[in-house]
Fold:
Amino acid sequence: MIPRELVGVAEVPGGPPLRLVRHGGDFIIMLDRNELMSSRMSGSEVALGTMTCARLRSRADMRLLVGGYGMGFTLRAILGEVGPDARVTVAELVPGILEWARGPMAAMTGNCLDDPRVDVRIADVGAVIDAGKGRFDAILLDVDNGPDGLTRQANDGLYSAYGLARARAALTPGGILAVWSAGPDPAFTRRLKQEGFAVDEVQVRARDNGKGPIHTIWFATRR
Structure:
């Protein structure tokens, strides 16, 4: 049996710390005993990026906001889909996650954080949304574990009716709010519709080979 190795601990503002664990050739980010993300299960995070870009294909100079860097799977998927005129803002609240990306996970991360199309901000994505009225063609949220958060109570505000109204205001006409979740949430689907979004709810396997747990992605289009 391959033992797990603690690589580092990152403090979360307003929440318990995260731990980066190495298990053989894989990395896992954990909250207490919960696995928040794993390099073994990247399929749904990649789909969050590729499926959003597919819905915006006609916009060559698209502007996207990614809330939560995580392990960078969504960001790297986006960069593989968009052209040189696209711009991607990454809002990551936890500096330690970016330090891990440039440190022990650098081989996996590649140079995506240094891509000239990328603007990295150590910030609460909610604040970036508030400052970006009508700016973004897409907002991609992979914050916490979905609408039913684990890491910090303040994240719940992103998924409230008020938070969804703020996100809608930050989108261009026809823009997309794409939200990743570990599972379905009928109440969240209803809130999206109540806030005036056209909603496409998609189930995606966690692994890129089509196996593993089923995760949920909402693609909510501003009408």
Observations:
- The first strand starts at residue 4 and ends at 12.
